[in-house]
Design a protein that fits this description.
The chain is mainly α. 71% of the residues lie in helices and 0% in strands.
């Protein structure tokens, strides 16, 4: 089977060589934004432990909103960074919920 919706392309179809489709551009963007978000989040943890200037939370939240929430959620617990600060992690979970809701809407109602 091809997943939830037979008319949706498989990942191998999305990332095939040639002219990129809109969906392949989105997937590549999400990979890139997660790498940037994860790198900045890990750097913020480094700065926090070495008394250096930190990455503003607004910047990290913007990256989450743009789609970088999966890696940040993983790193929150792997690095034990910002995972006990409700004023931070509540926004992260909100953005994750919005992305998941949008994905479910796209999969089932598009």
């Amino acid at each position: 089977t091809r997943g939830l919706r037979p008319d949706l392309p498989m990942l191998r179809d999305i990332l095939r060589p040639g002219v990129p489709s809109g969906l392949s551009v989105l997937v590549l963007f999400l990979v890139a934004i997660n790498l940037v978000a994860g790198a900045l989040f890990a750097y913020d943890k480094f700065c926090a432990t070495h008394n250096r200037r930190r990455i503003p939370e607004r910047t990290l939240h913007l990256l989450e909103l743009l789609g970088g929430f999966p890696l940040i959620l993983l790193l929150m617990y792997a690095l034990r960074h910002k995972c006990v600060k409700p004023s931070y992690y509540l926004w992260t979970y909100l953005f994750a919920a919005l992305w998941i809701a949008a994905l479910l809407f796209f999969l089932f109602h598009h």
